[in-house]
Amino acid sequence: MSKDVCVYILTHNRPNEVLRSLNSVRRQNFPNLKIVISDNSDNEDTLSLLKNIINNDARISYIRRGEECSSGLVAHFNYILATNTSEYFMLFHDDDEMLPNMVSALYEYLFTHDEISAVGCSGYLNINGKNTKKKMFVSKNIKKMENSGSVVRQYAIGNIAPFPSFMYRRSKIIGAKMDWLKGGKYCDCSFISAIANKGGVVYLPQCYMYYFISPSQDSQHHEFIQYLSLIKFFSTQVEDQSLLLDMRIFNIYNYLRDLQLKTGDVPYKRKALFLFYKYSLFNYFPKYILRLLKFYTK
């Protein structure tokens, strides 16, 4: 018989989104599922909308958070990490959706590989409310990363498993927490990197969820200084300067991209143009040229 898996759905003032997310978790084909709605909202709308579901599904617990999580999402994550008692658990977002076999697939891998700290997977992208077949990362093979450095290498080349896709083994990551100083809003990346040192992290190539993205999401807006703090942390984990250079170029490019999105214009800077030409001739350089010509807005 499989052991219990606890799925925490962290939510803040998004009752309609969390309803969709909750229903996708309720449809899981895993038999021993516990669901905790961890509500950090500043109103009663979420509880009002979900009350009947909570009362009629014995798997669901509702917890209204208070001062312990009042400083934001990182505090909310860290409080759950510190108080969770389930050996297998997930920290799921209130605006994403699970496919029906997500929990069972992640559990099967984690349970049968007892040295692993966490396992994540790829996900299909839902863009502006429309499901697509675009994937967070494309791979034919399982990727096993045995230390922080190997996670950084995957991250630097864009092979990123969405953070809500991960299932964790509590006994391996006791004491782990997110650190805002190691990446700001990107500190979920430094967190996954750090727990890789506690037994390894695995990416499964299959897509077991839909990861929702829209222009209004904070995650879709680049923060130059916060990303710089992530690079600073990663520089303590790897010696490969080419990877770190790629991340620095990525950081500069996305800073300029956001300027265009905000102002409708990209300021011509000779140093930036030279930088892209010298270090990223076949990647960011042509994109930057197209931006200057206002032919490229992605």
From TrEMBL:
Q: Which UniProt keywords apply?
A: Glycosyltransferase, Transferase
- According to the UniProt entry, what is the EC number of this protein? 2.4.-.-
Does the UniProt entry include the keyword Glycosyltransferase? Answer: yes
**Which top-level group of life is the source organism from?**
Bacteria
Gene3D superfamilies, A to Z:
Spore Coat Polysaccharide Biosynthesis Protein SpsA, Chain A
Q: Name one GO molecular function term.
A: glycosyltransferase activity
Q: Where would you find the membrane-spanning parts of this chain?
A: none
- Domain annotation Glycosyltransferase 2-like: ranges: 6-171
Is Transferase among this UniProt entry's keywords? yes
What the entry lists under PANTHER family is as follows: GLYCOSYLTRANSFERASE (PTHR43685), GLYCOSYLTRANSFERASE 2-LIKE DOMAIN-CONTAINING PROTEIN (PTHR43685:SF2)
- For this entry, the protein name equals Glycosyltransferase family 2 protein
Native source species: Bacteroides vicugnae
